[in-house]
Amino acid sequence: MSITLKAVQVFEQQSPHGITLHIPDDGVVAVIGPLRSGVYTLVKMIATLTPLRGGSISINGWKVGEQDEDIRKNIGVVAPHIFLSKDRTIAENIDDYQVAQQITRLPDILDSPLFDQVRQKMEEKLQLSKGMGQLLRLYCALPHDPSTLVLLNPTRGVSTLNLSHFWQLIRTIKAKGKSILIISSKMQDATHCDQIALIKGGHIIAKDSPKTFIQQFIGQLYGVKVHHPLLLNAIRNFPNRADKKNLRLTLQGNQLDLASLKQHLLDNGFPNINIQPYIPTLEDGYIERYSYSKIRKPIYQR
């Protein structure tokens, strides 16, 4: 019940190293990357829907490209390319999947409160919000009790109430010893995972636990209440900023830099500005590592 990726290439223009990653038994790993970073192609490769362009993928010992039928019987995939018929009701869509997978008995995990809305709308035609569409795809991915789950942007559009149910469901599935790979552009999804891998230009640029991502943040982060656009410009022009691209304030060095910043703002006509130390978040760690990575994104090719 594990996934192993070795030097997987997601772009036709080859990356020097590709994507190398291991998702162990009862492990939840998040691969985080922006649009066109190769995450969508990666999901299709793992799901055996797109041929490998290089490298290898094995799922529970089965190799993608060689034992695809075994993989499909033991994997659950949630992604936009999973087909749902808009001309049929929710119940009919679910029946189609259960017939295709030869399901005779539904697992207890489908009794989760997460799927209450799905059950309430069984006889309705498929005119769902993005969040409901994701829940329905997840519902269809679980009846055959897959040993491995691959979820692409699983929380997109999901309500705040259902988010808590979703992560509780993930914890329940993990406790059964299953491997879960979450591929997302939302750093918030990574907070619930055991490991985070950042993808850029078809390459893993960093991999750590959420706690380590925060602990290894370099520099001191400060919060400044911006009440005037000219104040924002003055902060951006401060010479000791570690990061001039993003709307956050990271200073290099110690308290002398903070004193210099206050003097800089005073010289620009902004006295008595309240500047407070700010505890870095997981998203701050992501921005820092992604911004300073020297890996360049290749030209996007379908």
What does this structure look like?
- The strands form three sheets. Strands 6-7-8-3-9-10 form a six-stranded mixed β-sheet, sandwiched between helices. A four-stranded antiparallel β-sheet has the order 2-1-4-5.
- The chain has two domains: 3-209, P-loop containing nucleotide triphosphate hydrolases (Rossmann fold, 3-Layer(aba) Sandwich); 218-279, no CATH class.
- Residues 242-247 and 295-302 have low confidence and may be disordered.
- It is built from eleven helices and 13 strands.
- It is globular and about 75 Å long.
- 31% of the residues are buried.
- It has helices at residues 39-46, 68-73, 90-100, 116-120, 130-141, 160-175, 187-190, 210-215, 229-236, 255-267, 282-292; strands at residues 3-8, 19-23, 28-32, 56-59, 62-63, 75-78, 148-152, 179-184, 195-200, 203-208, 220-224, 249-251, 275-277.
- The chain is of the alpha/beta class and 302 residues long.
- One of its GO terms (molecular function) is ATP binding.
- Residues 1-226 form the ABC transporter domain.
- InterPro entries: ABC_transporter-like_ATP-bd (IPR003439), ABC_transporter_ATP-binding (IPR050763), P-loop_NTPase (IPR027417).
- Pfam families: ABC_tran (PF00005).
